[in-house]
Structure formats: structure tokens, C-alpha cells
Design brief:
oxidoreductase (chains A, B), transmembrane helix (chains A, B), FAD/NAD-bd_sf (chains A, B), 27 strands, FAD/NAD(P)-binding domain, FAD (chains A, B), 432 residues, homodimer, alpha/beta, 2 domains
Chain lengths: 432, 432
């Protein structure tokens, strides 16, 4: 039970930021409560593997409360935060319960953005949660099943909208499934005749990477069988396909399974915070935080991770925006915890500084691009070596020893057999 | 593509019976089509492990079409059979498609029976499919989460209705979770204070077992912390609990999660078959088959597995009913395939003979009962040795090498750490 004498720290969200903040308070004289609307910490960088049947959900989702079993000052609660009272220092849950706090760290993350076209969501699910991954897996596998029933691959198109890391990972893996995993499993169709199209509105995929790696990624995707189309702007999405404005004019693209990987927006909790504290939001709905990650005028509240429009501060240089990646969220979690303890001790807080270790993305079997920031300058490579590096980096950062072992084994198995074991479909009906 | 010259064999259902029948036709000069409404073969004996978070779904669910990758005369289709035309030799799918057959093997299995009280289904899910397992897992884990939110274990009761193999496995594992798995994960409640009640209407649990093993099972369950109540008849179930007629009169039992393991009924396809062919059904809706497993008067149609009310025939002895267990279904699959080929060759068919290798059930960590039929007479044992025997027997029969390896690893891990890794809950809302 929490000790009424000790400061009560409330963390909203058990993603990379929230988890890291709670861990950083391990030895601190505070009671921590972490509240999340799901019961697990999700290793999002591998979520596309669940969506494509390569990994089972429990391999990348660790029960939140088991992660804190050994940290006695953490209480884990399952609940959805719907309101914040900054003056009374209370958080409101959807079930009517209230949670008090002395210090609040909001790490509620991001969700999809359809740029105002929320009607597209039903036809083109995004990939943020396990439920999203199950829905995409269901659509992907059912499209092949329907084609076998029809004995026809005519409309067996898969379209991924958005050429960022999630988009290229999904497109590359879908092509791999069609060409390798499903080979010899169908009798009336040739699954390799499925077409995977990757649509990117900008001039190149992986725009956050240096141009040479973008070009390498495009070539690797094409070698895997992905039809990469840059400068292709989506103007409409329905159940049967998409309307696209391409380099050569508008055209129609039939699609048996469309996935949205084009835009993210901050969690709606940003607006809740703005209503409660008057804080400012940027265009993506992210909270503009002070250099020390607290809310301007509300030092007891910090915002971290994808919900924060944070800047990296290095003395003598202009501040730089922090990219929405997991290392950024984890580093913010540690800084927010450190600043919270500094405030308790009456010491000055420190500005957040983002350490960029680089950037990597995988595209499918043997294919990846890596852009590492080293003390000697950038180290860039692609192809097989990049893929091995990507694999071990991701397994290393997976939470929980058991999961790492299982994921490595799953991959070793998939590598030799081309099989993807997690191909469960429990319902023929769509989610909507 | 199927060869129009070769006899077309249609198998409905990819459970133990259907899978085994298709495999037995591996080298036969026939084209086999196997149709199922889900895309996976489910290893049902371990389904309770998914319901209790010990195994992930893909560990016990192999994609049906990948099981037949190497068997070129099998076409796998995803579809729900809703009608049969015995004269035209056509099967009707829910989507309007028709599948022709020369020989039909119906292996559609069983479902829950609430003995006419289908309104209980919403409050007490049964355990037949992966969706059932997910729903039970959700309710079980959310009950603990709710108790932690309330800081109160008052109503933290789990009630399993039915003391057959599934009921004792679920009750024993639930007790293990409360006492071991969740220890140290809660701060406001002691999960070990959860109460697991097993209600059985008859005088003893595992009624199919010899009396000594039933008594041993009861003692082992009680040692695990299960409150075993025999002679307890359920008269009502609602969202908050059950009404029970016990040995000492009627009483009310609060329940945070009720599971139905008390009754099974044959698949509704039995009634479809009866309508199409005039065949007789028994009280549980199972099809009364001829000794060679065909439908009386319809030699082109066979019924096997849990949907068949089959008898075991041994020369010189009276026929004996076949129990609804997986070895029975598999043996029927092989006999139906053999008889189908005999008919093609114009040879006489053979009566089904069930070989009973015994019976075993597990009750939780270190606890099981085994009743083996050996040439030297029955071999009966319980406790630790029985548990090890049960474990290896089940892993041995798991379909697919990879799954065996993963399941063994999961168990080794769970054994040493008491952890259950597959504790994903993706939605807070109930299924209904």
C-alpha cells in the first residue's frame, strides 16, 4: 500500500516513456502508480511482425504488472484516463474512479491520423495496437483465402499507404509472405502473383534517412517484389481500393487489404491536458513542453514521449526537435524522473538532451538500412549485414529475457523454413 | 487443380478426425478438399492453457493449409458449410458457393450445450475455440485487475461448472495462477485470497476414470487450493454469480468469472444432415452411423469424430459406444478413409473398432491422473509422475515440430519461474 507520507507519482501510459520513468524511480523515496488502458507493455517496433503472422502477440507484449513485480514502490492499475484536474491534482478514470497525484507524468503516446478523413479508418486500418495487428493479419490472410475460393488472383493487391519505417516493413514482409511463406500451400492460385504496392506522397521512402539509404531501401524493396510509387498522393479510400494522384495523373488502384502507415497524431489526452492547464499544442496535437519536459506554469506535470513536442537542448546550439522514436521516449522518461527528484530536493531541473544513436529500418528477409551516429561520424550500410544488425538490436531491446529467447527462436525457425507460424484467424467477420 | 477423372472427396472440418482422414488419403488416387470455417487446426487438449495465459494461441493452432503443404492431392478451403444436398452431391457454403463431392466425410465436431439455457452462455462461456479461450482469459485477468482497483478481494471468486477433464484442468490452473503466478504483482490485494470453486453435479470429478483416480484427483485439486463441490447442481447463472442446489440445500455463489465445462452437444451440422438424408440423431444431436461409419442408406457419406454416435465393434462382443476424445476421432478418420478406398475398389468395408489406450487428465503443477490400458491390464498412477507423463504425451501429439519445441520451452520456463507469459488483454469490453 502507498505510504501517505511519501510523494505520490502518477504515470499515465506504460509505453517506452512511462516504463522508463517508473524504472528510473526505482530507488527514489516516492510511491509510483502507473495506469494504462491495456494490461501490457507493447514492443511496438515489432508490431508489424504480429500483423504479418511472424510473431505471436505474447512475444512482444509483456504483462505490465509482471515487469514491476520486483519494484515494490510501483502499483500498476488498469484504467483509461479521461480527465485531469491540475489544481486538485486528480486524474479521472473512465469508470468514475479518481487517482490523486503530487507529480504527474503523462506518456500517453500517439495514434493514427487520417488527416481529417476518419471515414478511411474502416477501409485502411493503421498499426498501433495489438488489435490493429490482428485486424491487418486477418485481412491479409483472408484475402489469400478468398482468392483460393475464387481460383483467381485478379484483385489480389495489397496496398500500404506511407513510406516511413512501418510502411516499408509491412510492404517488404507482405511481399515475402506472397513469394515464399505461402508457396506450395495453394492449389488453385499462385500466391506469388499477389501485388504489393507501397504508396508514398513524398519524393522518397524513409525520408528521415540520408538520401543514399532511401535509394538503397527502394531498390531492396523492388527486389523483394514491392511496387514502390513515390509522389503518389491518396485522395480517396473505400472497401474495394483507392484513388491515387500519381506523377502521371489520377488513377484507381484495387486493393484486397489496405494498411494506413501515413500519419500519426498525438493521443487525445493532449487536448484534455490543454483544457485542464491551458497548455499549447502543435499542429499534430502534441503538447509544447518546457525545456525540462514540464508543462509551462505547471511544474508538477510533465509530458514525455510521442505526446510531447519536445526539443533537444545542447549548450551553444539552437534547440532541435526530438523525433518520435522509442529511444527518444525512453530518454525523456529518464529525464522527467530525474527532474522530478530534483524538484523534491529543491534543486534546479535540467533541460532535455536527446542522444541520437542513429536510425534503422528493415524491409524484409536480408534487407535493411542502418544509419548509425558514431563518435567518428555516421556509419551507413544496407543489405544483409544491416539486416543482421537490425535483428540483434531489436531482440536486445525487447523487454524480458524470455521474450528475447522466443523471438530469436521464432526468427531462426522462420529463416530456415520461410514459415510464419502465427497465422491464426478466429473470425471471418471484419472488425467494423 | 483437381483432376475431373479422379473421385472427389470432400471433408468438412479440420479437427482431429478430418485431419487424420485427409492424411490417410495421402497416397490414394483421389482429390481431397478439406473445408473448415476457421483457418487453423486447433490442438484442443491444450486450449485451457491459452485460456489461462500459459500458451499463446499460435502454439496450439497450426494453419490448416500449411499442414497440407506437402500433400499435393489436398485443397484447403475456408468456408462455413450450411447445407448438404445428398442426391445432387453438393455442399452449400454460407457465402453461396457450392462444393461438389463423390464422397463426403463430415467431421464438424461438437459445441457447448447449456441444456436449453442458452441465456447462460453470456455469463459462463465454454471452452471450444480460440475466441472462447481469449474471452475466458480476458475475464480471469480483468477480475484481478478490478480487485486491485477496488483494493478488495471480497468477491474474487472463480467458478468452473463441470468436473470433467476440461473443468478440472481449468480449476487447477486458475488456483495455480492465484497462488503462484500473480504473487508479488499486486500491491493492494493478495491474489492468493481468490477462491476457485469447482461445481460437479455428479458424485465425483472425472467420472470417466476409475473411482480411485477420481478420489486422487479431488485430493490433488484441494491441495492446489480448489474448493471441490460434488453433487452441486447449477439452477441459474447471471452476471454476478450462480444459484446452486447443493447437498445441504440451495445457495447463492458470487462469481467474478464463471466458466462452463458441463455439457457438449454435436455440431448443428448433425441436424442439417438429418434434414438432407433422414438419418437419425441421438439426444445429444449426434448422428447414428452404420458400423463402417457411413450414413445408413447413404454409403457416399460418412460421419466421424464428436459428431458421430459411433460404436466400437469387436467380433464376439457387444458393440460399445466410443468416447468423445481425440484418439477416437483420429481412429475414425483413418477407418472412414480406408472404407472409402475399399468402396472405390468394390471391396467390403470394415466395422469401426476403437482402441482404448487409456485416459489421462492434468490438474495443475505436478498434479495429474493416468489410467493406461496395457496388454497386461490397467496401469494407474497419479501425482508428479502422472504429470510428467501427461506433459510428454501432449507435447508428443502436438501437430508440427516447431509447436512442440515452443510449447516445451514455454513449459520449462513457466515451471521454473511460475510465470505465464501469454497474458494479453486487448479490450476492456466483454464479448457480448
Amino acid at each position: 500500500m502507498p505510504d501517505a507520507q511519501r510523494p505520490q507519482v502518477l504515470i499515465v501510459g506504460c509505453g517506452f516513456g512511462g516504463l522508463e520513468a517508473a524504472r528510473a524511480l526505482r530507488h527514489a523515496p516516492v510511491d509510483v502508480t502507473i495506469v494504462d488502458r491495456s494490461n501490457h507493455h507493447l514492443f511496438q517496433p515489432l508490431l508489424y511482425q504480429v500483423a504479418t503472422g511472424g510473431l505471436s502477440a505474447p512475444s512482444i507484449a509483456a504483462p505490465a504488472r509482471s515487469l514491476f513485480r520486483g519494484q515494490r514502490n510501483v502499483t500498476t492499475l488498469l484504467g483509461e484516463v479521461v480527465g485531469i484536474d491540475a489544481d486538485a491534482r486528480l486524474v479521472q478514470l473512465a469508470d468514475g474512479r479518481q487517482l490523486p497525484f503530487d507529480h504527474l507524468i503523462v506518456a500517453a503516446g500517439a495514434t493514427h491520423s487520417y488527416f481529417g478523413r476518419d471515414d478511411w479508418a474502416a477501409h485502411a486500418p493503421g498499426l498501433k495496437s495489438l488489435d490493429d495487428a490482428f485486424e491487418i493479419r486477418r485481412r491479409l490472410l483472408l484475402a489469400f483465402e478468398q482468392a483460393e475460393l475464387r481460383a483467381d488472383t485478379e484483385a489480389l493487391n495489397f496496398v500500404v499507404v506511407g513510406g516511413g519505417p512501418t510502411g516499408v516493413e509491412l510492404a517488404g514482409t507482405m511481399a515475402e509472405i506472397a513469394r515464399h511463406t505461402l508457396r506450395d500451400e495453394f492449389r488453385r492460385i499462385d500466391p506469388a502473383r499477389a501485388r504489393v504496392v507501397l504508396l508514398e506522397g513524398g519524393p522518397r521512402v524513409l525520408a528521415a534517412m540520408p538520401e543514399g539509404l532511401s535509394e538503397s531501401a527502394r531498390q531492396q524493396l523492388q527486389r523483394l517484389g514491392v511496387d514502390v510509387r513515390t509522389g503518389a498522393r491518396v485522395t480517396a479510400i473505400d472497401a474495394e481500393g483507392l484513388q491515387v494522384d500519381g506523377a502521371d495523373g489520377p488513377y484507381r488502384l484495387a486493393s484486397a487489404c489496405t494498411v494506413w502507415a501515413a500519419g500519426v497524431a498525438a493521443s487525445p489526452l493532449g487536448r484534455v491536458l490543454a483544457g485542464a492547464t491551458g497548455c499549447a499544442l502543435d499542429r499534430a496535437g502534441r503538447v509544447l513542453v518546457a525545456p525540462d519536459l514540464s508543462l509551462p506554469g505547471h511544474p508538477a506535470i510533465s509530458v514525455i514521449g510521442d505526446l510531447a513536442a519536445a526539443q533537444s537542448h545542447v549548450a551553444g546550439r539552437p534547440p532541435k526537435p526530438v523525433p518520435g522514436v522509442s529511444p527518444g521516449a525512453k530518454q525523456m522518461g529518464r529525464t522527467a524522473a530525474r527532474n522530478l527528484l530534483a524538484r523534491l530536493d529543491g534543486k534546479p531541473t535540467q533541460a532535455f538532451r536527446y542522444r541520437d544513436y542513429g536510425n534503422l529500418a528493415t524491409l524484409g528477409r536480408h534487407s535493411a538500412v542502418v544509419d548509425l551516429a558514431t563518435p567518428l561520424g555516421p556509419l551507413r550500410f544496407s543489405g544483409w549485414a544491416a539486416w543482421v544488425f537490425w535483428l540483434f538490436a531489436h531482440v536486445y531491446f525487447l523487454i524480458g529475457f524470455r521474450n528475447r529467447l522466443v523471438v530469436l527462436m521464432d526468427w531462426a525457425w522462420a529463416y530456415w523454413t520461410h514459415e510464419r507460424h502465427a497465422r491464426v484467424v478466429t473470425t471471418l467477420q471484419p472488425r467494423e
